[in-house]
Amino acid sequence: MSLRTKLKKVLPSISITEQEALDAGDVWLEGSIYQGKPDFDALRDVPAAKLSAEEQAFLDGPVKELLSMIDDSEIQNGVHLPDYILDFLKKERFFSLIIPKSFGGLEFSPYANSTIVATIATKSSAVAVTVMVPNSLGPGELLLHFGTKEQQDHYLPRLANGRDIPCFALTSPEAGSDAGGIPDIGVVKRGQFNGEEVLGLEITWDKRYITLAPIATVLGLAFKVVDPDGLLGGKENLGITCALIPKDHPGVELGNRHDPMGIRFYNGTTRGEKVFVPMDFIIGGQKNIGRGWQMLVSCLGAGRGISLPALGVSSSQVAFKGASEYAAVREQFGLAIGQFEGIQEKLADIAGKTYLQEAMRVLTTEGLGMGLKPSVVTAIAKYHMTEIGRNVLDSAMDIQAGKAIQNGPQNTLASGYVAQPIAITVEGANILTRNLMIFGQGVMRCHPYLQSMVESIHSEDKNADKEFNSILRKTVGYSVANSLRAFRLGVLPFTAGAKSSLPEVRAYEKAAHKLSAKLAVYADFSLLVLGGKLKQAEMLSARLGDVMSFLYAAMASIKYYEQKVASSEREQAAPYFHYATRFALQSAEEALHKFLDNFPASGTRKFMRFITMNYSMKMPKISDDLIRELATQAQMDTAFKAQITHLVKPIEGDGHHINEQAYKAKMACLDLLAKVKKALRAKTIKPGVRFAETLDNALVASVINEEEYAKLIDYNKKREKAIRVDEFDFDMNLLDDNAKPVNPLKSVVNE
Questions:
Q1: Of 161, 186, 220, which residue constitutes the final position of a domain?
Q2: Does the global pTM surpass 0.85?
Q3: Could you give the residue numbers annotated as active site?
Q4: Which residue from 76, 458, 478, 582 lies 20 to 30 Å from 388 (Cα-Cα)?
């Protein structure tokens, strides 16, 4: 019995759904990471993302106007998204970011799409999600890639100008993460349509969690097609199919709403019982029956690589800007709380991870902008950027404490904090994404021979043994080369290559090569020892996926520092860069050690540890000195800090604006505050019960002059406003400055 025949008995074949997923995307930078040789040349050749003049004008015009219209407190206390917001979104074509200009769309780049969604999300998660969905996985993108000319000509102009609002229904009560197991069925039948008997589908479905469903005018629907009567002349089970059905088509139910954490975007259900539709309703026509899963997977990049990561980045930038400003102006025990090391540790972590988030956002959208569909990279972006966003928000809540938990127009964290779990759950729940998708897809996509080997093992071709033996020789040679490279780098770490022109980058580039070389070895031995069982060993495979992910993050950090940071701002950016890159490399190294510590075969585990010389943690550490340096830099009003919080656009009178005004006022009078504190220490003046009284005393004692006094009083008023929280009367009516009830949805407390 040949080795191929033996393996055929124990190794599972690639299922149709798995094969379609593998065929639907591209391999990009993650391929070189998996194979142990991170391609920094390819990384540096990626064209830098930038907004076109038209895209910038849209941000400066309609987006800015939209932000000024949004009162998120009003939205969250209401029942629906206000009609004036929806009407504005339609009028300004916010639903057409990905639709070509030839159909009346804006045809913006992935980077611009991400920037627009993320900017809106800093003000309102509900509005951001409403904009996000039509511009990611849904009818628009499916029509662009797979629709017939007639479908495109009819629907795309209507979607572009808002005459039609789309939703896409995939998730069923019985099939969430296992989307391939959807129970919704379309039976091939003849029926009546427009007074004629035509061939079509009789569909029964029950879907939930469908964003925009309650207000959609056109329903995208995924279901399985069966042909029990052989009307199409082929097999009975034809596979997942996607159709586009008008809301007013007989039998379509769009109505009942969900309440996703109180975030007021439209989300709900759709159902239908034996609804007959003609074949023309199938996206791409009858020829696309059974191609639905391939179509869906190929279009996942927008949701996973653009929209959901944009929500994570926006959360981080809001958290960083708000926390750093609050830490600078909020004082306890006579000091700004940003001077306490406990706060500094949290603040540095927020700052470093916000930098990393922006770097990953930029690199991922740059890849998508090149026309690539890297499904592993977009899964990495979706999982890690939403998780980091959640982690950063938690830290910001800790810093702002009582201010962070009091709802009202002045609270800049609450909406994002409540909405963050939404991004965690959609487009593949994060547990699924980490444990099954990142390495599960990566191992098949990125290994140069594995997919071909599995196909040859299960092949019925008469030359299959010969083909298998040829692939096996190549695989063994590949694995031996990986082991030798990892051993060399373990014994002679100084031989790792680095091509960066910046000395501070080269050490990290070398570190990435060392970790990647170890990853390649561990992946090879996992396949050799565990084989098909690696699918079930989710914790082990997830850790290898973490290594891939964090090395991708480190490469993003390096590229951003080299290409997006002006040379004049490198000194400002350096602490952010060092923290972010070290965090990524440390996380990758920790994942490697956890993988080794838990590998089930003792002998193999010891051999892998020896061949990679992996006995201790060797990556550059995040020291207390770096934390203090970054926390200090994070509280400074610098051009680079503005660059990595650029998504937050304060509108006069909103919470962001109130915080920023107090912060900038303090930055403008640091020398005067130091003068007053020096006088207090010298007991030249007495402290007042309130700071304004202290300033009165300083003026009387000529410690400050009239002009300086006015400047400090102005700062103090802005400070008091920034540290204040919204108040309500007993019946939850918001109070104005004279303690009089006002419209609970319109704050005048902040005016």
A1: 161
A2: yes
A3: 427
A4: 76
